[in-house]
Amino acid sequence: MSRRKRFPVVIVVMGVSGVGKTTIGAMLASRLGWAYYDADDFHPAENVEKMSRGIPLTDEDREGWLEGISALIRNRVEDDAPAVVSCSALKESYRRKLEIAADRVALLYLKAPKDVVEERIRNRSGHFFNPALLASQYLTLEEPSSWMRHASPRTSWTRR
After folding, report:
1. Mean pLDDT of all residues in the chain?
2. Domain extent listing, the chain
């Protein structure tokens, strides 16, 4: 007998800046009829200032930001309130803090060629991310490996 899992309540769309997290995340949430959250909105002013000046964030800078996103995800799961969250989630340790390994939280990893991402960042306006930071994002990125268990063809999701 196959064991059936409950359908994910939260989908985290991850990847480097400029890969399309906001566009895909918002479109996915709209199509599903779910709430949408952009993790950029959770950054404190100090983080935004650093990034706009081209200074990479440290793990310490990200700590409170990750705690806020984790609390959002935890609340959405507890309330069985579906949501899509766009978040860079560059390191495995960050994804663990976001509880992505939990059965009710799935990960959608977006990846694009570096030259495509660079061009997108150069051509966008109104965003605080300094294009000089893209190299540091790729250096920080730990590509997910365990996320594929959520997408296995043998996995059956059921809604409660």
Report:
1. 82
2. 5-144
